[in-house]
Design brief:
It is a single chain. By secondary structure, the chain is an alpha+beta fold. The protein has helices at residues 5-22, 26-32, 37-46, 65-74, 81-93, 96-101, 104-116, 231-249, 251-267, 279-307, 313-338, 348-355, 366-377; strands at residues 121-124, 140-144, 147-158, 165-171, 181-187, 193-195, 209-220, 224-225, 269-270, 273-274. It has a 4-stranded mixed beta sheet with strand order 1-4-5-8. Strands 2-3-7-6 form a 4-stranded antiparallel beta sheet, with helices on one face. It is globular and about 80 Å long.
């Protein structure tokens, strides 16, 4: 990537915001098991950070995704993947399809307040019986006059308890599973929408995650994004930005895991010498730093393909796979070198260890990424 002064300025703004408005409060938010999304998003909206890649007619900056990627990478300075993921839902998971394919009226009603930070959004795709298998989802929308009547349940929904609306994938016909789905906007305050209890998770505790239930929820058909039956394709396209976001937003934390471990191992003495002097340790950290730089290069290349309108599915899937596995490897190895200190709750490494585990599950599991990669390689059995 050839970063301009505009890219660097954006990165510095996001870094400062992350270090001043998120990082100091993360411990408190973790104890509360949620962060104040409306309050934080409004601060971000006031700085024009929620619509970097969105259309100018709804308050966005209309910049290409290289700026969105720089934004996502700089968020890593917040050092809390729960909040970072929630922000990514707002910018890269629940709103890209709305920006590209939503009607002028729909964008004015939902996207514009999302960019200003007045609305909190959520994407509702996963279900208890169909997380990575998007084609198997059961939530349905039947037509009734000019309306859809929606029934079904969604699971693992980030921002669920604070969301003003859900960008929801539903079945709108009995056609084959890849052509019977539509993306619709469902406001959270409608009759028949209910939110379940927040889920206690292993990590990303600052992010509120809960099931969402739709019981005869009525929405106008004009709340549909794009043509009826095109929802699966639109969601697959939306997934690519989500996967790049997830891959790049952990890079700063991976760097810091290694640098903090080096610093600690220089101070920690064992057998009358600093632990870092053990070749098995300094060699291993060198290998991990090399892997981090390789991931960074892969994500940047995927981003270049995206902004040049090339199919990014292959490289984005590789980046997502690599990031999920690397954050587990780096945090696990570094935690080991911290010894007993690494096993304490407050330790930076242990937080990355538990928060980062989701990266191999959310946004498409490692196994789904491998399946996509194999399909592009021509090795997937039919």
């Amino acid at each position: 990537m050839q970063f301009t002064e505009e890219h660097k300025s954006l990165a510095e703004t996001v870094k400062n915001f992350s270090q001043n408005e998120i990082k100091p409060f993360a411990d408190e938010w973790e104890k509360n098991k949620a962060f104040p999304a409306h309050e934080l998003f409004k601060k971000m909206g006031d700085l024009d950070l929620l619509g970097i890649t969105k259309s100018s007619e709804v308050g966005g900056m209309n910049l290409d995704y290289s700026f969105g990627m720089v934004f996502a990478e700089a968020l890593g300075h917040a050092a809390d993947l729960g909040v970072i993921t929630a922000i990514g839902v707002q910018t890269d998971m629940a709103t890209p399809a709305l920006d590209r394919y939503g009607s002028v009226e729909l964008k004015k009603e939902f996207l514009k307040p999302s960019i200003s930070g007045d609305f909190v959004s959520a994407v509702a795709v996963s279900e208890a019986g169909g997380g990575s298998d998007v084609a198997a989802l059961k939530t349905s929308a039947r037509k009734d006059g000019d309306d859809y009547v929606i029934n079904g349940d969604k699971m693992w929904i980030t921002n669920a308890t604070q969301a003003d609306y859900f960008c929801t994938l539903v079945n709108t016909s009995n056609d084959d599973p890849h052509n019977n789905k539509s993306l619709v906007i469902i406001p959270s305050n409608l009759k028949g929408v209910s939110i379940g209890d927040k889920i206690d998770k292993l990590g990303q505790i600052t992010s509120d995650t809960a099931p969402v239930y739709f019981d005869d929820v009525r929405i106008p058909q004009r709340y549909r994004i794009g043509p009826e039956g095109e929802g699966f394709k639109l969601q697959m396209q939306q997934f690519q930005e989500e996967r790049i976001f997830m891959s790049v937003s952990c890079l700063v934390m991976l760097d810091q895991c290694v640098s903090k471990t080096i610093e600690y191992c220089k101070e920690r003495q064992a057998f009358d010498k600093p632990v870092i002097f053990n070749q098995s340790i300094h060699f291993r950290l060198a290998e991990l730093q090399t892997e981090i730089e390789a991931l960074r290069a892969l994500v940047y290349r995927a981003c270049e393909n995206l902004i040049n309108d090339h199919d990014v599915t292959y490289l984005a899937s590789m980046a997502k796979l690599k990031s999920g596995r690397l954050i587990r490897e780096v945090s696990d190895v570094c935690l080991q070198y911290w010894g007993g200190m690494g096993f304490t709750w407050e330790n930076y490494i242990s937080k990355v260890y538990r928060d980062g585990r989701l990266n191999s599950i959310g946004g498409g599991t490692d196994e789904i990424m491998l399946k996509i990669i194999c399909k592009h390689m021509g090795t997937l059995p039919k």
